[in-house]
Design brief:
Layout (H helix, E strand, L loop, with lengths): L6 H24 L4 H18 L11 E4 L2 E4 L1 H34 L3 H9 L7 H16 L12
Antiparallel strand pairs: 1-2
Helix pairs in contact: 1-2, 1-3, 3-5
Length: 155
Amino acid sequence: MKINITKKQYIDLITMSRVANNIMGILGDYLEDKPYYKEQSNRLEELETYFLTFAKDFQCDDMVEEWRGEMIMNETISEKLEAMVDDYDEFNFWDSLATEMGKRDFMRSITSDDRKYMAEHDGWLPDRIGDIYETYHKEFEDHGIDRLEIIREDT
């Protein structure tokens, strides 16, 4: 089978490959109890290396360089794609923190009407949770973690 793609699609394919491999690689390095991630990362790395061998065919020579007999992504492109993953990580951190804290606060303030709504809607939280999430998003946007504190109960 042969697949025909454009230069733009080739660049997108390389981008997808690097971003996916970056994520799987991190998971594979840190979640040793889940070897699937490391195995997947290794397969994605092989696939990326294969894709990069076609750079010249797509007039993308500037994206690659040869190292130890293999085509690898050049450092400039690689750093650009890693910055995209960093942006995602940054967004995900703040969004996850707001979501978890919002859920915690919601559960502390749950009413009987909330329980009824959740029971009738397969566990979905009422719309008012959005206001709680927004409070945290605004807080983190304005102050980062500066006003977060751990309350110690070791007295």
